[in-house]
Design a protein that fits this description.
This protein has 10 helices and no strands. With about 290 residues, the chain is an all-alpha fold.
Length: about 290
């Protein structure tokens, strides 16, 4: 059977599994119980199944390209995010990270489901220089992964801050310290900033090599402007330890804002016809390649 034909079904099951892991972690948090082995096992099954889906789609392509579409990129990010959640949850005082991480993974899987069932468009592999395409796509998706981790750390910081403010931190075991979460925000956004910087530079190379991709005034297109603003937000978040104005809660909100802007750029590319037609294959090719 063609793996593309059952991709939406698999993604639907994986989304439900990630949500179930979130509900189990949330129940344990509310009941003040430690994380159960069943939650960890479900997390591993979901993550490994997501990885298996991505590898299967990769091996099923004729030219062995790992990132054939935004669908494959989302599966790639979800796999790495699942691994990161499981690793962090195994660390001392970080057992509750799944309460924030699993719904984010479920969101990515649900987005991949939509991309597979309704908006599937393969990348234009014949029009982009292969090396620049690989660099651009890999850095954009890895940058998105670190942005997700930074936002998760930001939400964790706000949760810990609220618990301390209301003197309820002791009743919520598994939460890290404020210092650790602020450091995690800085580290994740620093890595995201580095990846997105390379992604932006390689994207400019791709666009200038093909002047007609985004039109003559591409510098002022919403996609480019939002990407530049996102880069600036991550630049600020990366340097919060040197800027007292953006420390603490402001740093957490910067990381969350950066993720929202980045997801907006991704949504713009996949949903806005003016950009999806430029970045993807022709309608005829789409119909032939659709799952």
């Amino acid at each position: 059977m063609n793996p593309n034909a059952i991709t939406p079904l698999i993604l639907g099951v994986l989304t439900a599994a990630a949500l179930t892991a979130w509900l189990m972690d949330t129940r344990n948090l509310i009941s003040k119980s430690p994380q159960t082995p069943a939650t960890t096992l479900l997390g591993w099954i979901t993550t490994l199944a997501t990885a298996a889906l991505g590898i299967t789609r990769w091996l099923s392509t004729d030219d062995w390209q790992p990132l054939h579409s935004h669908l494959d990129g989302l599966v790639f990010i979800a796999t790495l995010l699942g691994i990161a959640i499981l690793y962090l949850a195994s660390r001392p005082r970080l057992g509750r990270v799944g309460v924030i991480g699993w719904p984010v993974m479920a969101f990515l899987l649900a987005w991949a489901l939509c991309a597979s069932a309704w908006t599937y468009r393969p990348f234009r592999l014949d029009s982009i220089e292969p090396v620049w395409r690989i660099v651009h796509l890999a850095c954009v998706y890895l940058g998105t992964l670190f942005a997700l981790l930074g936002a998760i750390a930001g939400v964790t910081y706000l949760l810990v801050y609220r618990s301390i403010k209301h003197h309820s931190l002791a009743a919520r075991p598994g939460l890290p310290s404020l210092e650790w979460t602020e450091s995690a925000v800085i580290r994740a956004t620093t890595l995201g900033f580095a990846m997105l910087t390379v992604g932006l530079i390689s994207g400019v190379v791709v666009v200038t090599a093909e002047p007609g991709r985004l039109g003559p005034d591409w510098w002022f297109s919403p996609k480019v402007l939002l990407a530049a603003i996102t880069w600036l937000v991550f630049a600020l978040a990366m340097n919060v330890r040197h800027m007292s104005l953006f420390r603490g809660k402001r740093a957490a909100w910067l990381a969350i804002t950066g993720l929202i802007l980045l997801l907006t750029v991704h949504g713009l590319v996949t949903a806005w016809p003016a950009y999806s037609d430029a970045d993807n294959n022709s309608p005829t090719q789409d119909a032939e390649a659709a799952p």
